[in-house]
Design goal:
Chain lengths: 81, 142
């Protein structure tokens, strides 16, 4: 399936801040996506683990099932205000 | 019931928001500005670059403010968050709460700020003489 990934905050030091397409084999959930991402970008490591994840701009559970075309955003601990 | 939520690059006009929220039945109008401070965790700060997940920030902020309004029985609230590079002294956050009496206005305003800092997808990167650093909410002074 084809996903659209978004990275923010300190993650943009490793990944582009621009939305990017990501091809994930077969049916998958967020755990599978994270594993695939870490395999391709080991530098994400701990930073990715500390993220909240939003799917289509809604906060998602760690095992949420993904659908083709979903936008998945990795949100490091927020610091607004 | 009034709720004004904005995530914007333009400067925050607090007086205008106060005007928008003032009502004859509201004797308490609380207004708050969050400014860029010249220090954080013992480091000197010259500016802060605020970034956000544009498609989600206002939406999540709206949810947070709605929850706080309900919890405190406050009918009118506004939160404006500024995005972009802000120098020391510039306002990053403007908040106005209007209610008949002061107690619920203060409680609601404080609650909104505490809650928004947990989930609204906005990040700050501080710049100072020591370089740039992403702010982590676990650190002191944030």
């Amino acid at each position: 399936m084809k996903l659209r990934l978004r990275f923010f905050g300190r993650l943009t030091e490793i990944m582009s801040p621009e939305p990017q397409d990501f091809e994930l084999a077969g049916a998958a959930d967020l755990m599978g996506l994270k594993a695939a991402l870490l395999a391709r970008h080991p530098g994400l490591g701990n930073a990715l683990e500390r993220c909240m994840i939003a799917v289509n701009t809604e906060f998602a559970a760690p095992d949420q099932v993904l659908a083709d075309g979903d936008e998945v955003a990795f949100l490091p601990p927020v610091s607004g205000g | 019931m009034t709720r004004i939520i904005r995530v914007q690059r333009e400067p925050i006009e607090l007086d205008a928001i106060v005007g928008e929220l003032s009502r004859p039945d509201c004797g308490a109008v609380l207004s708050f500005l969050g400014l860029v401070r010249d220090h954080a965790g013992g480091r000197e700060v010259e500016s802060i670059d605020y970034s956000c997940y544009e498609e989600m920030a206002a939406k999540e902020l709206d949810r947070v403010v709605a929850r706080c309004q309900e919890r405190h029985g406050v009918a009118h609230a506004a939160v404006v968050h500024r995005i972009g590079l802000l120098a020391v002294g510039e306002a990053s956050l403007g908040l106005v709460v209007a209610s008949p009496h002061r107690r619920e206005a203060f409680a609601c305003g404080l609650d909104i700020i505490d809650e928004m800092k947990k989930t609204v997808p906005i990040w700050k990167r501080e710049f100072g003489p020591d370089g740039a650093s992403w702010v982590d909410p676990g650190q002191p002074g944030t």
